[in-house]
């Protein structure tokens, strides 16, 4: 009765040794486990079952909790004959970059052990998402230049002057710049491909506080306004020289600067495009020259002058424009109206020409007027 009350699997185990091993009436009663089958009749086992284990990890006597409690790191350290090198305990990347041939190289910025590691980005702003999904592919499409196979590339003139080899010291020397003290060497406009699509790198907001020459309160109000608008603590700049005609004294704080990168830069540009620019009355767009309402038609035919020929675009906000920022408008009573300053905005892009930079900002929504002539 005791065997009948057991499950069928346990009854088989209990009766395994009692059953005859010989063949009865042409039928074999032997039942093997995997280990017994391999030991008793290895020639009958297929190669597919050679790698099977006889026991599973579910029935092992090992207990991880017992080994964890018995582990003593101090005792293990004291049992060592010598200490491990300091590099095994702590790693700090080199503080300074000493060149590509130095034996100690800093890890990349994406490595958490790097001194310059910045976690994120965890999310993209609305403008940056639009850039990644729509604007960047559109810029590649607009600037694509198809060159059929066999097209002969016309060689361009050298931007730098070569040496005439009149002296043995000219050998191996780099090429020289253009002639003349005032002539500067412009950047080459590179063709846009998937590696160098123009994007916003940094936004700088600068304000020169003329009233700070007589009263420092102007500087404090301007600092609070720029910090609320940009979200960055402004940097104070002092005068380097004394100018009696302007009442400027050396060492006197006269200007403020805020630098924004990454998400803050895109947020500021998005704020200008969607909240501030549409509310400026009688404003045709960004242009480097001053204009009057009656001269708009005339100014539309002039060339754009907002760039610096290196891919950086600037514009400015007067006192009336600075008031339109939502951070200032909601707390307008906090700022004395006569002390609110204007400021300049410089958008630094990775483009190498004003044409590409203006194309990027136009795609983002910045309004331009005037014809751009390179």
UniProtKB/TrEMBL annotation:
Residues 196-249 form the Large ribosomal subunit protein uL5 N-terminal domain. Belongs to the universal ribosomal protein uL5 family. Signal peptide: none annotated. Keywords: Ribonucleoprotein, Ribosomal protein. GO terms for biological process: translation. GO terms for cellular component: ribonucleoprotein complex; ribosome. Residues 66-85 have a biased composition (Basic and acidic residues). This is Ribosomal protein L5.
């Amino acid at each position: 009765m005791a065997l009948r009350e057991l499950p069928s699997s346990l009854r088989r185990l209990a009766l395994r040794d009692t059953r005859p091993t010989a063949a009865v009436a042409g039928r074999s009663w032997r039942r093997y486990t995997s280990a017994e089958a391999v030991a008793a009749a290895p020639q009958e086992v297929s190669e597919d079952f050679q790698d099977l284990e006889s026991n599973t990890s579910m029935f092992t006597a090992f207990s991880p909790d017992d080994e964890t409690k018995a582990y003593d790191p101090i005792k293990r350290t004291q049992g060592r004959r010598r200490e491990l090198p300091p590099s095994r305990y702590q790693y700090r990347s080199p503080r300074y970059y000493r060149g590509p041939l130095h034996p100690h190289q800093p890890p990349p910025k994406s490595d958490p052990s790097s001194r310059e590691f910045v976690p994120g980005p965890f999310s993209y702003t609305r403008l940056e998402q639009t850039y990644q999904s729509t604007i960047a592919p559109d810029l590649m499409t607009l600037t694509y230049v198809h060159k059929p196979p066999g097209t002969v590339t016309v060689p361009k003139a050298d931007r730098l002057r070569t040496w005439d080899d009149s002296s043995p010291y000219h050998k191996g020397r780099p090429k020289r710049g253009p002639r003349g003290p005032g002539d500067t060497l412009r950047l080459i406009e590179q063709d846009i491909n998937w590696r160098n699509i123009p994007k916003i790198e940094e936004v700088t907001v600068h304000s020169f506080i003329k009233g700070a020459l007589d009263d420092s309160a102007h500087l404090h109000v301007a600092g609070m306004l720029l910090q609320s608008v940009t979200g960055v603590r402004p940097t104070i700049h002092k005068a380097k020289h004394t100018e009696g005609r302007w009442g400027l004294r050396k060492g006197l704080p006269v200007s403020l600067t805020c630098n924004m990168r990454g998400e803050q830069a895109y947020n500021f540009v998005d704020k200008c495009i969607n909240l501030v620019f549409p509310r400026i009355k009688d404003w045709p767009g960004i242009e480097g020259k001053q204009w009057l309402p009656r001269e708009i038609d005339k100014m539309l035919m002039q060339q754009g002058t907002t760039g610096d020929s290196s891919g950086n675009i600037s514009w400015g906000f007067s006192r009336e424009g600075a008031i339109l920022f939502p951070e200032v408008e909601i707390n307008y009573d906090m700022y004395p109206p006569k002390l609110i300053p204007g400021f300049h905005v410089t958008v630094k892009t990775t483009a190498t020409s004003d044409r590409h930079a203006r194309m990027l900002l136009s795609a983002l929504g910045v309004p331009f007027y005037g014809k751009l002539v390179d």
